[in-house]
Amino acid sequence: xxxxxxxxxxxxxxxxxxCSRTRPNDTEGNRRKGxxxxxxxxxxxxxxxxxxxxxxxxxxxxxxxSPDFSRYAEMLTWQVLEAVGMNRWCGAVWxxxxxKVFPSVGWATPxxxxxxxxxxxxxxxxxxxxxxxxxxxxxxxxxxxxxLDALAPSAVICxxxxxxxxxxxxxxxxxxxxxxxxx
Length: 183
Fold this sequence. Notes:
Blueprint: E1 16-18, H1 28-31, E2 34-36, H2 55-59, E3 63-65, H3 77-96, E4 101-102, H4 113-116, E5 126-129, H5 137-151, E6 156-159, E7 170-173
Parallel strand pairs: 1-2, 2-3, 3-4, 5-6, 6-7
């Protein structure tokens, strides 16, 4: 499994822009943000074929979160493993090309915990999202706790409203699809 190396969080407040809303020569305000991939897979599926596509555009931002390829409970194990592997591979390649990258971490079922946390250095800042997980809150929190045990992240960038039960150094980032991304 490729490894995304531990990076230091920026000193400034964390804010994110969706990969699908990034632009060449973006505004100064947006360039202080990180790029996230907590969007539908079709918006970044091209990464499976060309991990360097759009990298020059993404480099203008403060950092990049590794791509959040979907992992569902009904997927076959190899599909979840592939999604995790692609996430780590993209992040590791981008780091080798000089980008600051934080791993996006997710899981499917308890069986997948054995590999969903691989490729992330312990005590690294990580990113998660609560979006789309409200109906399966209990399962989400079980996986979240397993992630905390496995990785002991120094911080958790959380896109969306954190559940009150979530523990750790959580950095909430508001997710509002209607907010104007450019300043």
